[in-house]
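Allow me, if you will, to draw on your knowledge of protein folds for a short while. I have a record of one protein: its chain in single-letter code and its fold written as discrete structure tokens. The full record is reproduced below for your convenience:
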Amino acid sequence: MAQFFKAKPNRSKQLSSKLSLKVTQLDHLGAGIAHHDGKIVFINGALPGETVSVQLTEQKKKFSRAKLLKVEQASSERVQPACPHFAKCGGCDLQHLDIDAQRTHKAATLVDLVSKFAQAEASEICETISDKNWHYRRRARLATWYDKNTKHISLGFRASSSSDVVEIQSCAVLAEELSVLLPDLAFMLNQLSGKKALGHVELTQADNGNFVVLRVTKTLSDKDKARLAEFADKHQVIVLLQDDDGHCEHLNGSGEQPFYGFEDSQTKLNFSPGNFIQVNGAVNLAMVSQAVNWLSPQAGERVLDLFCGIGNFSLPLARNGAEVVGVEGVPAMVAQARDNAKNSGLENVSFYHADLSADLSKEPWLGKVDKMLIDPARAGAYESMQSLKKLKPKALVYVSCNPASLARDSEVILKQGYQLKKIGLIDMFPQTHHLESMALFELKK
């Protein structure tokens, strides 16, 4: 007798009937938390104190996820999102929460996670570093999507939990000078004969002008390049074409690199497409100033800056006269950091390339360290923190873009004889759940 396979139902994805739930708090990713049948339910878009109508979309052993259908009783902290793309775009996911409440939530989340996982309370909770609530991004990468049927190329951001591109005409968090470019830029891209060869588009507001970088998979025609140059001239921007290997062709601007400077007017950092920079310029300046103040580097001291990038912290630290050693995992950024130090007239800073997730015990730059700064990616610096046993700097500033990895790494740091002296929120990304922070650890005497 023939036997036919019958797939078992996927119970984790079964949809429920409508439920009315009371939201009690937000998680660190900005989702509302409710409870049903003894399990936590995560609800994107719901706020604490609200009663909401939802439908369960995913059920696991210990938690569920639900889709918000209706807010039955709204929080007093709920506001109308300013961006017309809020419901579709994958960014700016806390626009529905009052800005002061956003910062209160983020600060509380930071303290709670470190307290819970590292079993530590800071001696001082510092004032939040913040600046503008809107139009603060000096850099953004937009996606493109070519429709073979309509021959139209869409320019925008990825939709939430999707690879679809949401076409936008403006962006409420992008620097205004960049946001106003979007309609004309999208129109111009659709005039190109080689528009199928376009990838992402990077917009940057630098101290020396606005830059538009177009990722291209094939060489554009001279006619297309002329159109782009005309756009550049009309809007007073510098346009570059970037190929598969990362090489850039300037269509105008005579090969000029974007840069940003610091308040001392002597220190400036050039950067290239693909180099990481902090997107909120004003908050970055305040963040660097606080880090330098907390570490207070002195002449005769040796300061180690791990995950140093193009020298964002290294160069300002070196201005105080200490010997600074910056270490970075991306070779191109190490080379850029060296050029930045030279161009800023700093001879007391050196840069090295190293895999900071590997064993560092034999690295030539390790040596004596008086103070340390680390600014890792979201994964944190767990492996690098094992070197503290050997280095024992008397002060360590940890700049974090992920409170969960900061909490985990804090536990390692504290076990090696340190105490948490200060911690504070850095609101680098208003209107989003993303949480930047800074913590100061000092070696116990």
